[in-house]
Specification:
The protein is an alpha/beta fold and 424 residues long. The chain contains 15 helices and 13 strands. The strands form 2 sheets. It has a 7-stranded parallel β-sheet. Helix 5 links the parallel strand 5 and strand 6.
Length: 424
């Protein structure tokens, strides 16, 4: 079976990482998978560029300009929404014509437009769409942030100036998406059961098939290694406890750094002994902007793209903390667990599906820095570290291995192919 995985970027962002891992998993399990991207970043032969770099740049700029206008020229939410009003027609590419199944992933920021998605459906090719956030089930937002309008019809969007209107940008994009989905069938796959539930509540996806399959991880890459050796490799202190926080942009409000700052302050109050023996490693950009706010020494590692270095950073940690306020199925938790490192996070999105409370980590009440501090303290001072690590590895082996995820997707592919043949 020939599968074409379509994603904006080859490597940048969680969706790109997940799409790449799925391509590798499918190829390792006897399928023929290629990846089609706007931003090709390596010389990998199974990843193909959609071409016309200047044109794709124009599509991105044109979309941002239209959003900028709708925002009354405010940058406040400029990159929190997508309208897919411009994009590249991929239906004429040889990789598209050769594929048995078209598998969409994260296709925003000027890569695929709604018109192109309509052409994909009109081509007659079976389409699977993995949802890495809520955008396919809403009008313009990727995370609803408490808004429930997508359950009936998007309008009066809280991300638009003045809360939008009955015929605002969100309402118009909703109508466009709705018209496309009324005449075309897509098999939607959410990366978590939480996102599956949210998608099924969307009026936009009424009548569409929605299921959930977690992302895959290659345990040959992400695996446990000697902690002392790992710390030497990335220049971290060989002695003491290490708390790890990871975010592409550390100051992203959605990633909850403010709650980590509060939790660390409470942690050192409750566990005075930890103050002299514990430090924090931050992997991601803009770490220096928050380093002075934390009550423990901070090691700002910056943004790192080298996979082996990232594996060493995880293995250097005693606990990985993800105080994210909205998330689907974070690759970072999966990567940490695969390295045998327990995780602490809030009970939001798909996080409780990954962290088994007090088995491979600690699930804290949402936006509760006191409980977050309790979780970090429990892992570092009370729990059986060896047992937590074993449970973490067992979780990954059972739920996120390449073979198990690939087989579940192959089943979906066979279903959409059979359905297409039956309809014909």
């Amino acid at each position: 079976m020939r599968v074409l995985i379509v994603n904006t970027s080859e490597k940048t962002g969680g969706a790109a990482v997940a799409a790449n891992r799925l391509m590798e998993a499918l190829n390792n399990n006897g399928e023929k998978a290629k990846m089609l991207v706007r931003d090709k970043q390596t010389d990998c032969l199974t990843v193909v560029s959609a071409g016309d770099g200047w044109r794709q740049r124009w599509h991105f700029l044109w979309e941002r300009w239209r959003i900028f206008m709708a925002m009354h020229f405010s940058k406040k939410h400029l990159f929190e929404v997508d309208i897919a009003n411009a994009g590249t027609d991929i239906t004429g590419l040889p990789e598209f014509r050769e594929a048995d199944v078209i598998h969409l992933h994260w296709i925003n920021q000027g890569f695929l437009s709604l018109s192109v998605i309509q052409k994909i459906l009109q081509s007659g090719k079976p389409v699977v769409w993995t949802m890495h956030d809520l955008w396919p089930a809403t009008a313009i937002c990727h995370y609803a942030r408490g808004c429930q309008r997508y359950k009936e019809r998007c309008h009066h969007c809280p991300l638009l100036p003045g809360g939008g209107s009955g015929n605002d940008l969100a309402a118009r994009v909703w109508n466009r998406k709705s018209s496309i989905l009324r005449v075309g069938h897509i098999s939607f796959v959410a990366c978590s059961r939480w996102l599956e539930g949210e998608a099924k509540r969307s009026a936009l996806l009424k009548g569409q098939h929605v299921s959930s399959i977690p992302n895959a991880i290659d345990t040959r890459v992400f695996h446990p290694m000697d902690k002392t050796e790992a710390r030497r490799k990335v220049g971290l202190p060989e002695e003491g406890n290490m708390i790890l926080f990871v975010s592409q942009r550390v100051t992203d409000e959605r990633k909850g750094i403010r709650y980590l700052v509060e939790a660390v302050s409470k942690l050192v109050e409750r566990y005075p002994s930890l103050k002299e023996t514990t430090s924090i490693a931050i992997l991601g950009g803009h770490a220096e902007e928050v380093a002075q706010e934390l009550s423990l020494p901070v090691h700002a590692l910056g943004y790192v793209s080298d996979e082996q270095t990232i594996v060493s950073v995880y293995n250097a940690a005693d606990v990985f903390v993800t105080p994210s306020l909205e998330d689907n199925l974070p690759n970072t938790i999966m990567e940490s667990l695969a390295c045998g490192v327990p995780c602490v996070g809030f009970a939001v999105g798909g996080i409780p599906e990954m962290i088994d409370h007090q088995k491979n980590g600690y699930v804290a009440s949402l936006r509760n820095s006191d409980d977050l501090a309790d979780g970090i303290g429990w892992v570092l001072s009370q729990a059986d570290a060896s047992l937590l690590s074993q449970n973490a590895l067992r979780k990954v082996s059972r739920h996120y291995s390449q073979s198990s995820v690939a087989l579940r997707y192959v089943e979906i592919y066979h279903q959409v192919l059979a359905q297409k043949q039956f309809n014909i």
